[in-house]
Amino acid sequence: MADEERSIEVFDNQSRSRYEVWVNGEFAGLEGYEIADDGTITLLHTIIDEEYSRQGIARALVRGVLDGMRVRQQQFRPVCTYVQGF
Q1: Minimal CA–CA distance to 79: which of 46, 49, 56?
Q2: Tens digits of per-residue pLDDT, 49-78?
Q3: What is the pLDDT of residue 53?
Q4: Strands in the chain per DSSP E
Q5: 75: part of which helix (H) or strand (E)?
Q6: Distance separating alpha carbons of residues 33 and 25, to the nearest angstrom
Q7: Which residues contact 4 (CB under 8 A, 6 or more apart)?
Q8: What does DSSP say about strands 8-13 and 18-23: parallel, antiparallel, or unpaired?
Q9: Residue 29 bridge partners (DSSP)
Q10: Contact, 1 vs 56, CB < 8 A?
Q11: First-last CA distance in the chain
Q12: Which of 3, 28, 38, 43 is most open to solvent, judged by the fewest CB atoms within 10 Å of its CB?
């Protein structure tokens, strides 16, 4: 499916300590995190469902997470190697 036909949304699921990426209303992956006492967010791991691998979904997820953190001026620590390479 072409990107223009695909809806990609990133949500902060605070109750599960993860950012989620949804493609056309279907769960496609996550970025797990922990929040330190000082408010720093540690990005732990990026996991994308195999059905959505190699489609730019991980990139869209991490871009959405980091753009949101930039807007909110949040400090983060990338433990996840995918985020480190981003």
Answers
A1: 46
A2: 999 999 999 999 999 999 999 999 999 999
A3: 94
A4: 8-13, 18-23, 26-35, 41-48, 76-78
A5: none
A6: 22
A7: none
A8: antiparallel
A9: 21, 48
A10: no
A11: 25
A12: 38
One-letter identity of residue 31:
E
**pLDDT at res. 86:** 87
Pair 31, 45: CB distance under 8 Å: yes
What does the alpha-carbon distance between residue 16 and residue 47 come to, in Å, rounded to a whole number? 14
pLDDT for the residue numbered 4: 58
pLDDT tens for residues 3-34? 458 899 999 999 999 999 999 999 999 999 99
Quick check: 34 and 44 in contact, CB under 8 A?
Answer: yes
Q: What is the number of other CB atoms lying within 10 angstroms of the CB of residue 11?
A: 12
